[in-house]
Design goal:
It is built from 14 helices and no strands. It is an all-alpha fold and about 350 residues long.
């Protein structure tokens, strides 16, 4: 197993390089960028004409990413000013030099600074992680706690009234996206049109610092109720059906018939033999489910509930052409995804020791 883990860790290097390379050259073909934004501000097309170009406060020469400024965007700006902007942001270098500089800096975790705020990327990501981890972790745990018992119950009662009725709920959860549930919850329970029971934004109240330890915990979960309920409703359906189908597939296998023929009780057969094999795929997929909810499932939820997490950070970076943040978060997300993918494989072995990746030549 140690050799398998080592091979997977080594394979992460070319995978990360490939992801960065593909996205780097795609960005070069995309219109706009930090330099174009600065020129637009200088031309008066933004609210603050000199907000981000005041002489070196925001220097991302360590991580240049975007393409060259267009001649049309630079009309009316003295050439020496344009060259100064390019040099400040590192775009005076040829494309291949910027690419190699990017790889070298990212290999040493030097992700540079945001072109908007000037903050180091690692500090930005670290400041947003608590919000996104709160949403991702609690949502994933609740989705599993709901979906596995419900999926098993549906499999055991396949075709019954309970199965049909619960399938209606699953269909609703599949058909309606989480952000629509979030809007509905805001309208109903956050002072939208009916009750004002739960807070509409943030993870803590303004008087957080004055609360006791118990009060802080209660306040934290009080703020999480609506966003997590919205994400759970929008995410439990797929896992429920996966659990049901896995359970049914195992029930139809020969070893189950053999166990029944030996006189074992139905409960012993289902939960002593079938459950372990059926849950292999579901339980081992926990890391992948967490990373999916953490990095892709919470964007609109964070926007709706004004939660300053990674999804909101990426959204603002894309809107404002902050390619330093886009590339930095992409690199971190990719690295975490690869690590959690490895953890998922190791969980297969933990759940079922009969699985041996080394013997399979993985």
């Amino acid at each position: 197993m140690l050799a398998y883990i080592l091979r997977r860790l080594l394979l992460m290097v070319p995978t990360l390089v490939g992801i960065l390379t593909l996205n780097f050259f795609i960005i070069q073909a995309a219109p706009g960028g930090p330099v174009d934004r600065i020129i637009a501000q200088l031309q008066g097309r933004a609210a603050d004409p000199t907000a981000r170009f005041s002489g070196g406060g925001t220097d991302i020469r360590s991580t240049p990413q975007s393409g060259d400024v267009t001649s049309r965007g630079a009309r009316g700006i003295p050439p020496e000013v344009v060259e100064r902007i390019k040099k400040q942001y590192g775009f005076d270098k040829p494309l291949h030099e910027r690419y190699l500089l990017l790889l070298g800096n990212y290999a040493t975790f030097n992700l540079g600074n945001s072109t908007l705020s000037g903050q180091p990327i690692l500090e930005l990501v670290a400041s947003k992680l608590p919000v996104s981890i709160s949403l991702g972790l609690w949502t994933t745990l609740l989705v599993y706690l709901i979906s596995i018992p419900l999926g098993v119950a549906k499999a055991v009662r396949d075709g019954s009234r309970f199965d049909v009725a619960s399938s209606s709920v699953v269909i609703v959860g599949t058909a309606i996206p989480a952000f629509l549930f979030a809007i509905l919850l805001v309208v109903l329970f956050a002072g939208g049109s009916y009750w004002n029971i739960f807070p509409r934004q943030g993870l803590t109240s303004p008087d957080w610092d004055t609360l006791s330890t118990t009060g802080k915990i209660l306040d934290y979960f009080w703020h999480l109720v609506l966003p997590i309920v919205a994400m759970v409703i929008g995410g439990f359906a797929t896992l429920t059906m996966l659990t049901k189908n896995s359970f049914i597939d195992e029930v139809r296998k020969q070893y189950v018939q053999t166990a029944r023929a030996k006189g074992l009780s139905e409960r012993r057969v289902l939960y002593g033999h079938v459950f372990r094999n059926a849950m292999l795929l579901v339980i081992a997929g926990f890391p992948a489910a967490f990373i999916s909810i953490l990095f892709t499932g919470s964007l609109l939820i964070e926007v709706i509930f004004s939660l300053d997490g990674l999804g909101f950070l990426g959204f603002n970076a894309a809107i404002n052409r902050d390619y330093s943040v886009i590339f930095g978060t992409l690199w971190i997300f990719s690295l975490l995804g690869l690590i959690l993918g490895l953890i998922g494989d190791l969980m297969y072995v933990l759940v079922d020791p009969r699985i041996d990746f080394e013997r399979r030549g993985a």
